[in-house]
């Protein structure tokens, strides 16, 4: 029951939002469309669901053309950023309503059975007699999700469903979703600007950029092998650090280095295909930076802007040559703003991007490969 879209185009006035998207969403996947705000995620979801029409292109569900089929004639559920529930109906009545208005003539027993089952699955069975205003934000969103799921749609479209929830509820629903949808037959298409949400829940991720899905892959593959700079710079919490470098080779030796600045050189061991004298964008993940002594080999020394500590993990926000870079540290750290801090880097975990085309041209030996 996968979805295939082919050559989708959509403009609003002179603004082109989708520029010929072709995409396969595998059956029963949890497929996240990730992009910054305004990139066109909602537009793509609405076209795939049949709520909006494209200027050109086709949509197939399970091999069957659906491009012009109305949304009510498709087996789809929708969940939006706003928790859309009927305010004057109880949670139970909210859940029952999609079945009551359906053409399928569900019996009262069947409706009650499905309400109970869905409420238990989404952990809202204790609030079935409450009105929406009498439940928490997380429960209201779970109610909205239950309403979308109760007809057991083949396809569930969710457009930033966690956006209005606080941090704790987001975390909770992230793990609920992952558990729930790994057991269901539903194919989930999930739009979010939050890389962390997508990385926590998805089986597959597609990254939308300039009107196209520039990379689509299994979750681990797109995380470990971001093929283009915009993907690398976005998909991570915090994202990958990117620093411009020049590859240098001493005339008298075979040793090669990534030269970051006059004082900073990092051995380019293992990157034999790169050309001396060329400039590159060097990528390394915040979790692959280790605190070290000033002046140690293969190290950089950025300036601390501030430290953010969540639980026991510290995220260091730093300035390095006018760029914001991040490091993750497994323990709480108490450091002074403006301090110079040295980090050792591991060239085996480097990514090297072409600074113009933005594509990945080399990666260190410790970066998992997928083929
Ligand atoms: N009905 C419309 N009329 C005119 N412009 C629209 C319409 N719908 C969307 N747009 C424009 O199309 C672009 C993409 O919008 P869309 O909502 O699809 O992006 P998004 O990635 O979902 O953003 P967000 O994360 O903020 O929801 C935006 O510039 C938006 O203003």
UniProtKB/TrEMBL annotation:
GO terms for molecular function: ABC-type ferric iron transporter activity; ATP binding; ATP hydrolysis activity. Its EC number is 3.6.3.20. The keyword Transferase does not apply. Keywords: ATP-binding, Cell membrane, Hydrolase, Membrane, Nucleotide-binding, Transport. Gene3D superfamilies: 2.40.50.100, Nucleic acid-binding proteins (2.40.50.140), P-loop containing nucleotide triphosphate hydrolases (3.40.50.300). GO terms for cellular component: ATP-binding cassette (ABC) transporter complex, substrate-binding subunit-containing. Pfam families: ABC_tran (PF00005). PROSITE patterns: ABC_TRANSPORTER_2. Residues 3-235 form the ABC transporter domain. This is Sugar ABC transporter, ATP-binding protein. The lineage of its organism: Bacteria, Pseudomonadati, Rhodothermota, Rhodothermia, Rhodothermales.
């Amino acid at each position: 029951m996968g979805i295939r879209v082919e050559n989708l185009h959509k403009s609003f006035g002179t603004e082109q939002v989708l520029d010929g998207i072709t995409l396969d969403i595998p059956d029963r996947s949890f497929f996240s469309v990730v992009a910054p705000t305004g990139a066109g995620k909602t537009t793509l979801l609405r076209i795939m669901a049949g709520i909006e029409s494209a200027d050109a292109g086709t949509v197939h569900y399970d091999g069957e053309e659906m491009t012009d089929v109305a949304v009510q004639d498709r087996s789809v559920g929708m969940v939006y950023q706003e928790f859309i529930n009927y305010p004057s109906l109880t949670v139970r009545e909210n859940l029952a309503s999609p079945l009551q208005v359906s053409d399928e003539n569900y019996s009262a027993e069947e409706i009650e059975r499905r309400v109970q089952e869905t409420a238990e699955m989404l952990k809202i069975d204790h609030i079935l007699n409450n009105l929406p205003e009498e439940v928490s934000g997380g429960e209201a969103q779970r109610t909205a999700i239950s309403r979308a799921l109760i007809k057991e749609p083949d396809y569930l479209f969710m457009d930033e469903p966690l956006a209005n929830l606080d941090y704790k509820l987001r975390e909770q629903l992230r793990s609920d979703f992952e558990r729930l949808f790994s057991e269901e037959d539903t194919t989930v298409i999930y739009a979010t600007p939050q890389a962390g949400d997508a990385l926590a829940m998805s089986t597959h991720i597609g990254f939308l950029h300039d009107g196209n899905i520039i990379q689509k892959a299994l979750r681990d593959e797109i995380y470990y092998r971001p093929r283009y700079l915009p993907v690398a710079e976005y998909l991570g919490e915090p994202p990958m650090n990117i620093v411009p470098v020049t590859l240098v080779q001493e005339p008298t030796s075979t040793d090669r280095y990534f030269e970051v600045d006059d004082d900073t050189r990092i051995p380019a061991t293992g990157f034999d295909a790169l050309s001396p004298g060329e400039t590159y964008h060097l990528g390394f993940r915040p979790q692959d930076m280790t605190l070290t002594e000033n002046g140690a080999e293969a190290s950089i020394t950025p300036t601390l802007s501030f430290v953010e500590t969540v639980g026991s993990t510290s995220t260091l926000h730093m300035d390095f040559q006018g760029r914001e870079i991040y490091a993750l540290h497994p323990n709480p750290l108490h450091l002074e703003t403006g301090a110079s801090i040295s980090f050792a880097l591991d060239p085996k975990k480097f990514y090297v991007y072409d600074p113009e085309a933005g594509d990945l041209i080399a990666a260190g030996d410790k970066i998992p490969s997928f083929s």
